[in-house]
Every structure is written in structure tokens, then in C-alpha cells.
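Handout, page 2. Input:
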Amino acid sequence: MIQCSVSKLKKYYGAQLVFENISFDLQSGERVGLIGQNGSGKTTLMKILMGEENHQEGTLTYGKGVTLGYLHQIFKSKEGTTVREVLEQAFEDVWKVKRQLGDVEVEMKELSGGQLEKAMARYSSLVEKYELLGGYDVEVRMDKVCQGLRIPQGFMDKPFGQLSGGEGTRVLLARLLLQEPDVLLLDEPTNHLDMDSIEWLEEFLVEYRGTVLMVSHDRVFLDRVVDRIIELEPTRASIYNGNYSYYVEEKERRFQIEYREYVNNQRKIDMMERQIERYRIWGAMRDSEKMYKRAKELEKRLDKLEIVDKPQEEKRKIRLDGSGTQRTGRIVLDVEDLSKSFPGKRLFSGLTFTLFYQDRLCIMGANGSGKSTLLNIILGESEQDLGSIKYGSKVKIGYLPQNISFQNEDLTILEYFTRTHGITQQESRNELARLLFFGDDVFRRIKVLSGGEKSRLKLCSLLYTRINLLILDEPTNHLDIDTREVLENTLLDFEGTILFVSHDRYFVEKVSTRIIELEEGGYGEYPFGYNDYVEKREKRRIVESQKTASRSKSTESNKRPTRRPDHTQKIERLELKIKDKENELENLISMMEDNNDNPDQLIELYSQKEKLEEEIIRIMGEWEGLQENQRR
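Output:
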């Protein structure tokens, strides 16, 4: 069933065309990845789908009653609104029914006879609706999502306005997931999430009952979650029925087909043009009207021939130069017994490692584990509690932070590069061309650049100074997939040493040679890349889980005899209990019929009836569990 249909959509910003001829459908239950280069209009398209942006041409239709949810990057809340209140906004339908139930309860105290019966029927209908909406499971659902996205209980009563940007984004994502709209629109949902939260979100979206359309540059995330890729280009939306890895292979296959068609088309055109020329030459030599006529016929056929455009193998990409750095000593950085705590929280203690020449060490860990703090200590911008840091000989550091800023953002790109490095404008233009800043682009002011453009400019500037220790904090944030791949290749060619923090699993696997994971005040060290780290971590978790289970089993065996419990006796006791409860339920129903004209007594009996039914369901569940165990 089609939930959303987009046909021949065209969008302008002023006189600038963003995209045109964009067509695709979103089917029920599918998970679609929307990809494209920065500036291709992915976020704009999302806002058009939500009705927050207009479009100049094309149609946009939705299935009857389809609900949409969009992760807003900017959220305005009333002053003092708590995190809990923001999350509870996801259950507005539930609270509406709950208020109606309260109103009916008050009404029933004043009614009798036929009016009371009608009120009771309405009350029963509302209770059923409340249950269908998940009213009894609100807290359970909130706990599940908050645990998965690492939103601690201590945040619940905290004013939403006091949260950091990353914390606020996680809360808004949690609210959106709790709403469970028919079509879920996500723009970079893995931003500000640690590895565990990303993995939890992957599982959540794979099991999600609705339709999901997401913009993401996380290639592993796209591989694990989506079953269709839409690549947004200026003049079309290309559809690929598979995950990201399938898209890469299929795009190459399509390119080869298109290129062969282009070559054959050009060959046919050349052949016809040569034949036309021959007919004209023969016609002139022999004064043959027949030859001239044949040339004109062939020209008409050539005019009608469809011209196949040459496919672009790849768009121009940035070229960064990471070669020519000065060699450091064998030991670049020596960290010994490093400890850091804040009031009420210990980040890490006893952290010891040595960074060797040409190491590419990734620091990983959950949000709040101290990754950025560790980088700041190494850079000398924060003080450690204990321990020491020593640099090797001839070390020259370059640092690329998460949020790039420049001292004077009113400068143009050309002015910044020329003044920073004391070189001529022509030399600056040559370097900036590596980042695709051509022509008048170099006169753009830094303050109007996107986050990705600022990152690329800063990195190019760092590499120009021939640094030999590169420290990066989430370097792939704000970068599209093409630029991430260029950055990966640049770092692989970099002749110095790299220390970085990243949640981009594909990037970590491709770049890192070692991993250190900060965890619960301590740390673990892994002398290999990401995939081997995951395998090693899972094995360790299984061993720890088995040890915990073994200890629990040992404790239980010390408390009671090892004799296997008699399931038959327990089953019989539960069956008797169920029968007694069913008799109680029948008596309650009879009492409700006898007190039909007593509203207060009727409400009390109805409440007892609900509790008794829940108790019967609980006992039945226990009984079914024992039956299953006995069959095994």
C-alpha cells in the first residue's frame, strides 16, 4: 500500500534550482535511505514532505489518514518545560482519552437508570480505546526508548531548555519514536548518539511497523536498516532496491550500461556523419542528384536520432594533500596512569597507552565517557587529576574539533588562507582548488559556509602547515558520503600519526589501526580495527554473562536443594487459583447488575473487576510458562 507518492517535484530557492523531476513512492512498512551530496536538497525535500516548505511544480499525495513525524532540529518549548513533559507530548491521544474517562466517572455519580447505562457503555468503550492506544504501557515504552537512547532518569525533571544541543536532539528523537507515526522522517538520526545507542536504534527501526524515510551518511547504518535507496540528484531521483552496499554495486553496473549506450550512440552518429560527407563528395564529383538526395535523407535521420548524454563517472571531489610531513620519533605520545573525575562522576582512571609513529588510534566510548575531555587534556586545554602526558621529539600537532569556528568569519575564504599562511593569492587559489573552491567561490565569506565546507577548509589549512600529529574529534560530522570517502583516503595517505574520536563505524574500520574504549571509569585496549573489536567485545560480553549466570546459579544452589521443581504440582495449584478467581469475577459481575442504580458502588465494583481481570491474565501467563517448560 502506498503511503506517500511524489511526482515530478520541482523546487527553487529564488532563481536557483534545487532539484526537478523528482518522483518516487513510499510503501507501507519499508525503510528507505535518502542519500545525495551536500546541497542536493535532502533536508529541503524532507520539509516539503512535512508541508513546512513549498514547491513550484509537481504533486505530493498521501494515503487516507496517514500520520507523519519529523525530527526537528529546532524545537521551541515553554520556559520550564521538563524533559518528561516533552516526552509525554508523544501521548496526546492517550491523555485525551484519559481526561474523557475522568469526565465520565464524574458524570456517572450524578446519573441513574438508562442514562447511567449509556454512560457505562461509553466508559467501557473509552477504556477499550485507552488500552488500544497503549495507555497502560506508557511508562514501559518511555523507559525502553530512554534506555536505548541513553537518556538517564536524572534528566526527566530537568528543564528541556537547559540541555545541550546533542542531549536535546536525543530527547526529540525519543519523543518522535514514541509517537509511532505511519511515516517516520529522520534527518541524520545517528548524530549525537554513541555506538550502543546507534545499534539500539538500528534494531528499533528494523522492527518498526510504519514506513521510515531517513537521510543518513552512516554507511553501516544504511546497510543494516534500509531496504531501498533513493539517490537525490539535480534532475532525478534514482531508485535502488537494496541497502547501501547494493547501491554501490548497482550504481557501478548502471554506469557501465549507460557508458556502453553512450559509446554506441556516438559511434552511430560518427558513422552517419561520415556517410553524409561521402554522399556529398560523391554527389559533387559525379554531379549526382541521387547522391545529394541520399545525403539529405541521412541528415533527416540523424536529426531525429536521440542523443545519449555522456554519463558522469564521478563528480569532482576534493583533493587534500597529506604527504610531506616531518618525521617524528618512534614514540609520539606517552600517556601514563591518567585519571579524571568530575563531582559525582569518574570518567577514567589509570589510563595508560603509548602512541607510536604512524599509529591511527581511535578513542571510543558511550556519550559522557570522557572522549572529548581526554583530547582536551592531551591538547593542554584541561587538567588531569592524576598521571602524566609526554610528547615525543619533533611533534607538531594539528587539531580538528567537532564544531569548527574561525576567529574572524567575516573574512573571505581567500583572505583567510592567504593571511593565515602568509602566501600569495595565486598560491592560496591553487590550494583552495583542491577543495573545489573555484572562481568566485573563494570570495565567499566563511560565515556563510556549511559545516562540511568549514571542516574541509580547516583540514586543508592544517595539512598545509605539515603537521605530523593529527587530532580529530568526530571528523565526519557534516560531511556527505563522497567527502567522507575522500577524507578516509587522505588520512590513509597521511604520513604522520592520527588520534581521533568517531562514531562512524565504517570510517573507524577503514582508518583505525588500534582502538581504546573508555568504559565505566576504566578502559579497554584493542590492537586492531573496528570489526575485530566488535567480535572481541561480543566474546567478552558472552563470557561475562556466563560468569554472572554461573555465580547466580551457584548462589541459588546454596540456598535450596538441587532437586528439580515439581511443575505438575505448581500447574495444578495455579489451575485451582484461576478457577477461584473466575468465580470471584462472576460474583462481581452479578453485584454490578444488582447495583445498576448505585453509581458510586458501580464505579468501585468496575475498578475491582479490572484489577481481577489483570490478576487472572497474570496467573494464566505463569500457568502457560510452566506448561511450556514441562514440554521441554
